[in-house]
Amino acid sequence: MHTIRLNIHDTIYDKLMGLLEILPKDKLEIVEEHNTYPAISLDEAKQKVERAINNIANNEGLNLNTAIDKVMKS
After folding, report:
1. How many other C-beta atoms lie within 10 A of the C-beta of residue 70?
2. From CA 20, how far away is CA 13, in angstroms rounded?
3. Is the Cβ–Cβ distance between 61 and 52 less than 8 Å?
4. Fewer CB within 10 Å, N side or C side of the chain?
């Protein structure tokens, strides 16, 4: 078997699921993932880490709970 991961826009999700449901059940396994974390690019992640590291020496960092709350809200 092969595995693929798709990011599907809400406007076509039901249509695609309908198509997949008509395929033979013994030939396809659907595993839905509900990603609750925002995806960012590698470059954006590098910039955030670099900025955080540079701010440590200036005592401009955030405490852990504040940082986690900020990430979860974005």
Report:
1. 10
2. 11
3. yes
4. N
